[in-house]
Write a structure and sequence with these properties.
The protein has ten helices and twelve strands. By secondary structure, the chain is of the alpha+beta class. It has two domains: about 140 residues, no CATH class; about 90 residues. The protein binds zinc ion (ZN).
Protein backbone atom coordinates (compact mmCIF):
# COMPACT_ATOMS: atom_id res chain seq x y z
CA UNK A 1 0.00 0.00 0.00
CA UNK A 2 1.79 3.13 -1.17
CA UNK A 3 0.93 6.51 -2.60
CA UNK A 4 2.66 9.53 -4.09
CA UNK A 5 2.07 12.84 -2.34
CA UNK A 6 3.05 16.49 -2.79
CA UNK A 7 3.61 18.49 0.41
CA UNK A 8 2.83 22.20 0.96
CA UNK A 9 6.44 23.21 0.15
CA UNK A 10 6.54 21.24 -3.10
CA UNK A 11 8.41 18.29 -1.58
CA UNK A 12 7.04 15.17 -3.28
CA UNK A 13 7.57 11.50 -2.66
CA UNK A 14 6.10 8.08 -2.07
CA UNK A 15 4.72 7.03 1.30
CA UNK A 16 3.46 3.75 2.68
CA UNK A 17 0.89 3.02 5.37
CA UNK A 18 1.82 2.03 8.93
CA UNK A 19 2.89 -1.53 9.71
CA UNK A 20 2.71 -3.53 12.92
CA UNK A 21 6.14 -2.38 14.01
CA UNK A 22 4.98 1.22 13.96
CA UNK A 23 1.98 0.19 16.03
CA UNK A 24 4.41 -1.06 18.65
CA UNK A 25 6.26 2.23 18.44
CA UNK A 26 3.03 4.21 18.87
CA UNK A 27 2.21 2.28 22.02
CA UNK A 28 5.60 3.22 23.49
CA UNK A 29 4.88 6.13 25.83
CA UNK A 30 8.53 6.91 26.51
CA UNK A 31 9.21 7.37 22.79
CA UNK A 32 6.09 9.52 22.44
CA UNK A 33 7.24 11.75 25.32
CA UNK A 34 10.67 12.29 23.79
CA UNK A 35 9.06 13.28 20.49
CA UNK A 36 10.86 10.43 18.70
CA UNK A 37 7.70 8.67 17.53
CA UNK A 38 6.76 10.96 14.64
CA UNK A 39 10.38 11.20 13.56
CA UNK A 40 10.57 7.43 13.26
CA UNK A 41 7.20 7.13 11.52
CA UNK A 42 8.20 9.72 8.93
CA UNK A 43 11.56 8.07 8.28
CA UNK A 44 10.01 4.59 7.98
CA UNK A 45 6.98 5.46 5.85
CA UNK A 46 8.65 7.86 3.41
CA UNK A 47 9.86 5.42 0.78
CA UNK A 48 11.42 7.70 -1.79
CA UNK A 49 11.79 11.35 -2.74
CA UNK A 50 10.58 12.34 -6.20
CA UNK A 51 11.06 16.10 -5.83
CA UNK A 52 13.13 17.44 -2.89
CA UNK A 53 11.31 20.81 -3.02
CA UNK A 54 13.28 23.33 -0.92
CA UNK A 55 15.43 20.66 0.80
CA UNK A 56 18.83 19.35 -0.05
CA UNK A 57 18.83 15.61 -0.44
CA UNK A 58 22.11 13.95 -1.31
CA UNK A 59 22.00 11.30 -3.99
CA UNK A 60 21.21 7.94 -2.44
CA UNK A 61 20.67 9.41 1.05
CA UNK A 62 17.31 9.53 2.83
CA UNK A 63 15.51 12.81 3.45
CA UNK A 64 16.57 14.35 6.81
CA UNK A 65 13.22 14.87 8.50
CA UNK A 66 14.55 17.08 11.30
CA UNK A 67 15.32 19.72 8.67
CA UNK A 68 11.88 19.48 7.10
CA UNK A 69 9.33 22.23 7.76
CA UNK A 70 6.54 21.42 10.20
CA UNK A 71 3.91 22.09 7.52
CA UNK A 72 5.36 19.28 5.39
CA UNK A 73 5.85 16.97 8.36
CA UNK A 74 2.28 17.35 9.53
CA UNK A 75 0.88 17.01 6.02
CA UNK A 76 2.87 13.80 5.50
CA UNK A 77 1.76 12.33 8.85
CA UNK A 78 -1.84 13.08 7.88
CA UNK A 79 -1.44 11.27 4.55
CA UNK A 80 0.22 8.28 6.23
CA UNK A 81 -2.69 8.09 8.64
CA UNK A 82 -5.27 8.34 5.83
CA UNK A 83 -3.47 5.67 3.81
CA UNK A 84 -3.41 3.33 6.82
CA UNK A 85 -6.88 3.74 8.30
CA UNK A 86 -8.84 5.63 5.66
CA UNK A 87 -9.91 9.21 5.30
CA UNK A 88 -12.47 9.33 8.13
CA UNK A 89 -11.27 10.58 11.52
CA UNK A 90 -13.56 10.31 14.55
CA UNK A 91 -12.80 11.87 17.92
CA UNK A 92 -14.69 13.04 20.96
CA UNK A 93 -15.29 16.67 21.82
CA UNK A 94 -16.70 18.30 24.93
CA UNK A 95 -19.11 21.18 24.38
CA UNK A 96 -17.51 24.44 25.53
CA UNK A 97 -20.81 25.99 26.72
CA UNK A 98 -20.73 26.10 30.53
CA UNK A 99 -24.43 25.24 30.72
CA UNK A 100 -24.05 22.17 28.48
CA UNK A 101 -20.70 20.35 28.62
CA UNK A 102 -22.09 17.54 26.48
CA UNK A 103 -19.48 15.04 25.29
CA UNK A 104 -20.05 14.01 21.69
CA UNK A 105 -18.38 12.21 18.79
CA UNK A 106 -17.34 14.21 15.75
CA UNK A 107 -16.14 12.75 12.47
CA UNK A 108 -14.55 14.43 9.48
CA UNK A 109 -12.72 13.55 6.31
CA UNK A 110 -9.01 14.33 6.52
CA UNK A 111 -8.88 15.02 2.79
CA UNK A 112 -11.39 17.85 3.26
CA UNK A 113 -9.14 19.88 5.58
CA UNK A 114 -7.93 22.87 3.54
CA UNK A 115 -4.21 22.91 2.72
CA UNK A 116 -2.31 26.11 2.01
CA UNK A 117 0.86 25.84 -0.07
CA UNK A 118 3.86 27.77 1.23
CA UNK A 119 4.12 31.19 -0.40
CA UNK A 120 6.90 31.98 -2.87
CA UNK A 121 8.15 34.54 -0.35
CA UNK A 122 8.35 31.98 2.46
CA UNK A 123 10.08 29.40 0.27
CA UNK A 124 12.58 31.94 -0.98
CA UNK A 125 13.34 33.06 2.59
CA UNK A 126 13.65 29.47 3.81
CA UNK A 127 16.24 28.51 1.22
CA UNK A 128 18.29 31.68 1.71
CA UNK A 129 18.94 31.63 5.45
CA UNK A 130 15.42 31.14 6.83
CA UNK A 131 14.77 34.72 7.87
CA UNK A 132 11.42 36.41 7.34
CA UNK A 133 10.50 39.94 8.31
CA UNK A 134 7.42 41.37 9.97
CA UNK A 135 6.50 44.38 12.07
CA UNK A 136 4.79 44.55 15.46
CA UNK A 137 1.50 46.40 14.82
CA UNK A 138 1.47 48.36 18.12
CA UNK A 139 5.14 48.66 18.98
CA UNK A 140 6.16 49.36 15.35
CA UNK A 141 9.43 47.46 15.73
CA UNK A 142 10.64 45.00 13.09
CA UNK A 143 10.90 41.34 14.02
CA UNK A 144 12.70 38.64 12.02
CA UNK A 145 11.53 35.07 12.42
CA UNK A 146 12.17 31.62 11.01
CA UNK A 147 9.93 28.96 9.55
CA UNK A 148 9.78 26.07 11.97
CA UNK A 149 11.51 22.75 11.20
CA UNK A 150 11.22 19.43 13.00
CA UNK A 151 14.40 20.19 14.95
CA UNK A 152 13.07 23.61 16.07
CA UNK A 153 9.83 22.01 17.18
CA UNK A 154 11.69 19.49 19.32
CA UNK A 155 13.78 22.26 20.86
CA UNK A 156 10.65 24.26 21.69
CA UNK A 157 9.03 21.20 23.26
CA UNK A 158 12.12 20.66 25.40
CA UNK A 159 12.22 24.23 26.68
CA UNK A 160 8.50 23.98 27.42
CA UNK A 161 9.07 20.81 29.40
CA UNK A 162 11.93 22.43 31.30
CA UNK A 163 9.30 24.88 32.52
CA UNK A 164 11.39 27.91 31.68
CA UNK A 165 8.73 29.46 29.46
CA UNK A 166 4.96 29.44 29.15
CA UNK A 167 3.24 28.06 26.07
CA UNK A 168 2.98 31.40 24.28
CA UNK A 169 6.50 32.47 25.22
CA UNK A 170 7.96 29.15 24.03
CA UNK A 171 6.09 29.40 20.72
CA UNK A 172 7.49 32.90 20.16
CA UNK A 173 11.05 32.19 21.27
CA UNK A 174 11.29 29.13 19.02
CA UNK A 175 10.76 31.34 15.98
CA UNK A 176 12.19 34.78 16.67
CA UNK A 177 15.61 35.36 15.12
CA UNK A 178 15.96 39.05 15.95
CA UNK A 179 13.94 41.89 17.42
CA UNK A 180 14.91 45.34 16.24
CA UNK A 181 16.88 47.14 18.96
CA UNK A 182 16.63 44.27 21.46
CA UNK A 183 19.71 42.24 22.45
CA UNK A 184 19.28 38.49 22.53
CA UNK A 185 19.70 38.28 26.30
CA UNK A 186 16.95 40.90 26.74
CA UNK A 187 14.49 38.98 24.56
CA UNK A 188 12.58 37.20 27.34
CA UNK A 189 12.18 40.43 29.28
CA UNK A 190 11.03 42.23 26.15
CA UNK A 191 8.43 39.56 25.44
CA UNK A 192 7.15 39.79 29.02
CA UNK A 193 6.49 43.50 28.52
CA UNK A 194 5.17 43.17 24.95
CA UNK A 195 1.50 43.96 24.33
CA UNK A 196 -0.43 40.71 24.20
CA UNK A 197 -2.07 41.94 20.98
CA UNK A 198 1.38 42.18 19.39
CA UNK A 199 2.20 38.64 20.51
CA UNK A 200 -1.00 37.32 18.98
CA UNK A 201 -0.31 39.27 15.77
CA UNK A 202 3.15 37.68 15.63
CA UNK A 203 1.75 34.17 16.03
CA UNK A 204 -0.79 34.89 13.27
CA UNK A 205 2.02 36.03 11.01
CA UNK A 206 3.97 32.83 11.79
CA UNK A 207 0.93 30.72 10.95
CA UNK A 208 0.38 32.57 7.71
CA UNK A 209 4.01 32.02 6.66
CA UNK A 210 3.97 28.33 7.66
CA UNK A 211 1.15 27.30 5.37
CA UNK A 212 0.09 23.69 5.56
CA UNK A 213 -3.02 21.95 6.78
CA UNK A 214 -5.72 24.11 8.36
CA UNK A 215 -6.43 22.50 11.73
CA UNK A 216 -8.99 24.97 13.08
CA UNK A 217 -12.32 23.24 12.54
CA UNK A 218 -15.95 23.95 13.37
CA UNK A 219 -18.05 21.45 15.27
CA UNK A 220 -21.71 21.63 16.30
CA UNK A 221 -22.88 20.35 19.66
CA UNK A 222 -25.82 17.96 19.12
CA UNK A 223 -27.31 18.84 22.53
CA UNK A 224 -27.38 22.67 22.50
CA UNK A 225 -26.65 23.17 18.78
CA UNK A 226 -23.95 25.76 19.45
CA UNK A 227 -21.20 25.90 16.83
CA UNK A 228 -17.66 26.11 18.18
CA UNK A 229 -14.20 26.35 16.71
CA UNK A 230 -11.65 23.84 17.98
CA UNK A 231 -8.18 22.65 17.06
CA UNK A 232 -8.16 19.27 15.39
CA UNK A 233 -7.22 16.86 18.18
CA UNK A 234 -3.97 15.15 17.28
CA UNK A 235 -3.65 12.50 19.92
CA UNK A 236 -3.24 8.78 20.35
CA UNK A 237 -6.51 7.96 18.56
CA UNK A 238 -5.21 9.65 15.43
CA UNK A 239 -2.76 6.85 14.71
CA UNK A 240 -4.39 4.13 16.79
CA UNK A 241 -8.12 4.50 16.16
CA UNK A 242 -10.43 2.31 18.18
CA UNK A 243 -11.88 -0.61 16.27
CA UNK A 244 -15.42 0.27 15.27
CA UNK A 245 -18.23 -1.97 16.45
CA UNK A 246 -19.72 -3.63 13.40
ZN1 LIG B 1 -23.58 21.92 23.92
Amino acid sequence: MSETITCPSGLAGTIRGLKGKEGTLLADRAAAKSGATFEKILAACWLSTDDPGPYQVEEGKPLGWSKVLVADRFYTLLQIRALTFGDGYAFSVQCAAASCRERFEWELKLSELPVRALSEEALEAFTTGNRLETRLPHDGRKVWFRLLTGADEQRAAKSLKAGQDGLLQAALLARIVEIEGVAEKERRKFLDEMELADQVALLDRFDEADGGVETRIEVECPACLSVQEIDLPFERGFFLPRAKAA
